[in-house]
Amino acid sequence: MSNLLGIGLSGINVSQMGINTVSNNIANLTTPGYNRQVVSIADQRPTGSTSGFIGNGAKVLSVDRLFDQFVNKQLRTAQALNSSQSMVYDQLRQIDNLLANNTNNLSDGLQEFFNNVQNMVSNPADSAARQTVIGTAESLVAQFGFVDNYLRELDEGINTSMKDIVGQVNVYAEQIANLNLEITKARGLTAGQEPNQLLDKRDQLVTELNKLVGVQVTEQNGAYNVSFSNGLSLVQGNQAGKISVVVSSADPTRMAVGYSPSPGINFEIPESQIRSGELGGLYQFRDTLDTTRNQINQIAMVFADQFNKQHMQGFDLNGEPGKEVFSLGSPVAFSNNNNKGTAFIQQISRVDTPKMQGTDYRLDYMGAGQWQVTRLSDGTVIPPMVTGTVPVVVEFEGIQIEINNEADLEVGDSFKLKPTSDAITGLGLLIKDPSELAAASAPDSGPSDNTNAKALLDLQNQNLVGGSSTFNTAYAKVVGVIGTSTKAAEINFRAQENIVNQLTMEQQNLSGVNKDQEYVDLQKYVQHYQASAEVIKTASTMFNAILSIR
Q: Which parts of the sequence belong to the Flagellar hook-associated protein 1 D2-like domain (predicted)?
């Protein structure tokens, strides 16, 4: 009789645990990161007798969460790539919208400027025609400035986003490390039973962290070890590493990510090692942004420089030699902070702007007077022409660099060269008086001489940008490349998004809460509870019947 009561009670207990588990699933139907839980049930050890083994009911072994480590690993990889592609696409759209905007179309601005130079060619003595050249020159300078400022703001936005991402990464890493400790303690207090809520919370944090930087996860004794960037540890047991935003050792105008595995130790992580997650997407976009800025500045630089040179070949209405019409920002260069030598670049000059390319460079000292120049936009290695030792003069692609003393160099020393990127920062109009426009070819040829004005007009049809493009075709190439890159980024993002959706569906089919399924399970456990209660009622009735026998 007592055995029957025990069997019924065990059924009540199992049903109650099942009802509680299903209810918890339903309550967490929309909880991010929650994995569906199920009750693992087994029969109690039976009692042996001469008539055979008699069952003693059921028991709950554990409450398990439905979690597939392999599917989740696939999903994390896809999510990291998706976050990267999403970041690249969202950022590229901003440049695409800027360059495609007719209001700030540099091609139209250049065309309008040369149209007014044409008017001056037709009427070199007309002050009104000359004044429109001055007016459209001012507008063109403003247009270049607007575009460059917008691109610089995007660059500053990258720095801000990097700081935000790095801060979130450190918070998540610390929380995961703390959860590793809590999970270990919880398992000890419950004789090895899994603390499902803590496990879900930890996995959700890993998911969020992975979207930021792309991580690899290994499990050791129940704790997660989390690494990124080719094995750098973010979480090791209950210890968390830290990352920070630091000034790039190669270029003080840009930020990089530093890694601190322990207090007092910090080193810069190469950009090439972070290519997934939002941070990797920012790096990829910054590469494109750098190239775009350089190419826009290249157009402005070549335009202003070549216009100045031709203008200085002529004479103005007063018979004076032509002056520079436009000012330009200077090229810049930086020594790498990790250089072992003390040599520095004492001068960087633009010697032939049509030969210059829209890119930054890295200049590496190979030893014994040997140098290597690398275009950072495409990785092309350029053999430079090198002369002298004090100073060392390095020339390539229209650029000349003077390094103070070869004796101060060490093998492996490098320098970052930015010959074009700051051209627009100093772009301005130097001539305000229309009479100072040098349209004539001689000082005494009279106001009707338009020979030099014709030469100025001819600049628009010459392949001066990179030695292969006119000003307008060079700008059209920039717009076309950005448009193509934006479309490709959208395609990649949509494709990766579909992969994430498919893997998410697969993961949810196993681990997600389905309210219809939970309703069925709830009814099953309620009926089980009622049936077990009937067993207890029957046992009680039989017991009372026995007691009533006299």
A: 335-419
For 374-422, the DSSP string reads EETTT--EEPPEEE-STTEEEEETTEEEEES-GGG--TT-EEEEESSTT
Q: Could you tell me how far CA 401 lies from the centroid of its own chain? A: 33
User: What is the pTM assigned to this prediction?
Assistant: 0.88
Please tell me what DSSP assigns to residue 29.
T
* Radius of gyration of the chain from its Cα atoms, rounded to whole angstroms: 37
Which residue pairs, CB below 8 angstroms and at least 24 apart, start in 507-516?
A: 507/68, 507/71, 507/72, 507/75, 510/66, 510/67, 510/68, 510/71, 511/35, 511/36, 511/65, 511/66, 511/67, 511/68, 512/36, 513/25, 513/26, 513/28, 513/29, 513/34, 513/36, 514/36, 515/26, 515/29
Q: Report, in this order, helix, strand and coil percent for the chain, each rounded to 5.
A: 55, 20, 25
Query: What are the backbone angles phi and psi of residue 352, rounded to the nearest 5°?
Result: -155, 85
Strand, coil or helix: 346: strand
Virtual torsion, Cα 128, 132, 134, 140, nearest 10 deg = 180
CA atoms of 407 and 415, how far apart (whole Å): 16
- Each residue's pLDDT tens digit, 282-330: 999 999 999 999 999 999 999 999 999 999 999 999 999 999 999 999 9
Judged by average pLDDT, the poorest of 46-50, 316-320, 438-442 is 46-50
User: 353: pLDDT confidence band, cut at 50, 70 and 90?
Assistant: very high
Q: Under a CB-based contact definition with an 8 Å cutoff, are residues 69 and 202 in contact?
A: no
Dihedral of CA atoms 398, 271, 278, 289 in degrees, nearest 10, equals -10
- Taking the C-alpha atoms of residue 303 and residue 470, their distance in angstroms, rounded to an integer, is 10
pLDDT at 50: 73
Alpha-carbon span 192 to 183, nearest angstrom? 10
The pLDDT of residue 242 is 92
Query: What end-to-end distance do the CA atoms of the chain give, in Å?
Result: 19
Evaluate whether 225 touches 86 at the Cβ level (below 8 Å). no
Give whole-number Cα distances, 425 to 103, 293, 329, 421, 422, in Å. 21, 11, 5, 9, 5
The closest alpha carbon to 298, from 429, 430, 463, 419, belongs to 419
Q: In the prediction, which pLDDT does 265 show? A: 83
CA distance 538 to 530: 12
HSE on the CB side for 513, CA within 13 Å? 22
Residue 445 CA to chain centroid, in angstroms?
A: 60
